[in-house]
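Structure first, sequence second, as always.
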């Protein structure tokens, strides 16, 4: 999720109109749009399309709140991977977060934003281009690439992390 959705969580938690109200963030999700790769398998085209548009992310682990977003969460066809067992507990692969996880994530986002603001104010911009699959992703569109003082030691090599497909 990078920071986009956690920043939304922070903004909602700080929003003045919500102060003092019993507001619950039920989950944070991404939804693929126009990214359908139909496969020659036993599922119908409609089932494949429905699965490709399922919400992907984390849901609050409070059983009484989840029906507000997905009344059929026990075997969801709305939130990818959301399922409970016969005992009523979430399957181990179900992506859920506790209220404590939510608060910790919001606190981490606050720290990251405060550190970023400090670095901007103090003009602290380390040269740290990112390389993925031996391709420099950071300098591709930089108009100062030719005159940059970067060295080979400044390059940070990252592991390629492709998007998960619906079967994962």
């Amino acid at each position: 999720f990078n920071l986009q959705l956690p920043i939304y969580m922070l903004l909602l938690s700080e929003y003045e109109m919500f102060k003092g109200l019993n507001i619950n963030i039920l989950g944070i999700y991404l939804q693929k749009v126009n990214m359908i790769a139909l496969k020659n398998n036993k599922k119908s085209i409609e089932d494949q399309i429905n699965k490709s548009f399922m919400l992907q992310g984390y849901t609050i682990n409070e059983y009484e709140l989840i029906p507000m977003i997905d009344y059929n969460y026990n075997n969801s066809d709305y939130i990818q991977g959301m399922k409970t067992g016969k005992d009523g507990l979430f399957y181990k692969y179900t992506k859920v977060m506790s209220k404590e996880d939510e608060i910790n994530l919001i606190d981490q986002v606050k720290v990251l934003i405060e550190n970023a603001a400090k670095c901007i104010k103090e003009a602290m911009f380390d040269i740290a281009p990112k390389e993925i699959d031996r391709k420099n992703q950071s300098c591709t569109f930089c108009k100062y690439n030719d005159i940059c003082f970067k060295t080979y030691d400044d390059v940070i090599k990252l592991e390629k992390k492709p998007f998960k497909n619906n079967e994962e």
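Margin note: Strands lie at 27-30, 56-60, 96-97, 130-132, 135-136, 156-158.
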